[in-house]
Amino acid sequence: MQHMETRYTHSPLDIRHYSTEELRREFLVEKIFTPGQIMLTYTHNDRMIFGGVTPTEEALEVQLSSELGVEYFLERRELGVINIGGPGAITIDGQKEPMKKQDGYYIGKETKQVLFHSDDPANPAKFYLSCVPAHKKYPNVKISIDQVTPMETGEGLTLNERKIYQYIHPNVCESCQLQMGYTILEPGSAWNTMPSHTHERRMEAYVYFDFANEDTKVFHMMGKPDETKHLVVSEEQAVISPSWSIHSGVGTSNYSFIWAMCGENITYTDMDMVAMDDLK
C-alpha cells in the first residue's frame, strides 16, 4: 500500500502566530515507516518527495506517474536511498543489490523500476527515500557507510561531537541537485549544528532515528534566526526545513539523522552562518 500527502510552502510571516499544533501539522511528518507500506510526503519546497519504504513479505515499488505528470516515477527525477533497518535488497531495472543497514544508493533519472525487499519480514529493511527533480541522467551508484570517510566535527565540551557521512555528494557520486548524508552523534553529545545556519538557496529535510532509548526526544529548532520556534520530535519522525529556516536540534540523549538537500547548487558549504548573539 502507498500513501502520499502534500505539504505546501510558507512565508516566514505565515508561521509567526502558529500554535504548536499548527506548526507540527505543517512541518513535522509523524509517520515515516509502516510495515508493508510506502509512506511519502511531497513538499512544494523545491518539490522534494521523501519518506519511508518498509517491505515485509512482498517487494514494494513506488508508483507515481499521473501525480507528477510523467509516465513513470523517475522519468524526470533522481532518487537517494539509505537503509536504516534490517537487511534487505533493491532491484533496479532487473539488477538486485543487497542493502544492509546504513547502505545507500544513488539512482539516476530515467530508471524505469525500483523494487524494495526485506530479507526477514520480522526485521524489515527501512528504506528512507529522498527524490528531487533532475535534468540529466547520472550513473546509479551503491554507497555503503563502510566506503565513506566521515567528517568528524564538534567537541565534547560543547556536547556536539558527531560524524557526518556524505553519501550523495560531489566527493562520492554525481547528482543533479540532490545531496544526502547521515549524521551520528557520539554518546554524551546532544547538539547538532549549533551555531546554526540557513541556506537561502536550498531546502532540507531531516529524519531523526537510532535514539538511545524510548524516552529520548529531540527538540528541533526552526524559524527565522531572530524569531525561532521548536518542534518536539520522536524517533523516526521527519521535519521539513524551508530555505529561510534554521535547522538545529538538541536531544535528551544522542541520536542519528539523515539530511537531504536540494536547490540551486550542490556546494555542501554554501550556508549562511548565524551568530549566537543573533538568535532570538
From TrEMBL:
Pathway: Glycan metabolism; pectin degradation; 2-dehydro-3-deoxy-D-gluconate from pectin: step 4/5. It is an enzyme of class 5 (isomerase). The keyword Hydrolase does not apply. Zn(2+) binds at H197, H199, E204, H247. It catalyses: 5-dehydro-4-deoxy-D-glucuronate = 3-deoxy-D-glycero-2,5-hexodiulosonate. Pfam families: KduI. GO terms for biological process: D-galacturonate catabolic process; D-glucuronate catabolic process; pectin catabolic process. It comes from the Bacteria. Its cofactor is Zn(2+). The keyword Metal-binding applies. Keywords: Isomerase, Metal-binding, Zinc. Its EC number is 5.3.1.17. Binds 1 zinc ion per subunit. InterPro entries: KduI, KduI/IolB_isomerase, KduI_N, RmlC-like_jellyroll, RmlC_Cupin_sf. GO terms for molecular function: 4-deoxy-L-threo-5-hexosulose-uronate ketol-isomerase activity; zinc ion binding. Signal peptide: none annotated. Belongs to the KduI family. HAMAP family: KduI. Catalyzes the isomerization of 5-dehydro-4-deoxy-D-glucuronate to 3-deoxy-D-glycero-2,5-hexodiulosonate. This is 4-deoxy-L-threo-5-hexosulose-uronate ketol-isomerase. The lineage of its organism: Bacteria, Bacillati, Bacillota, Bacilli, Lactobacillales. The gene is kduI.
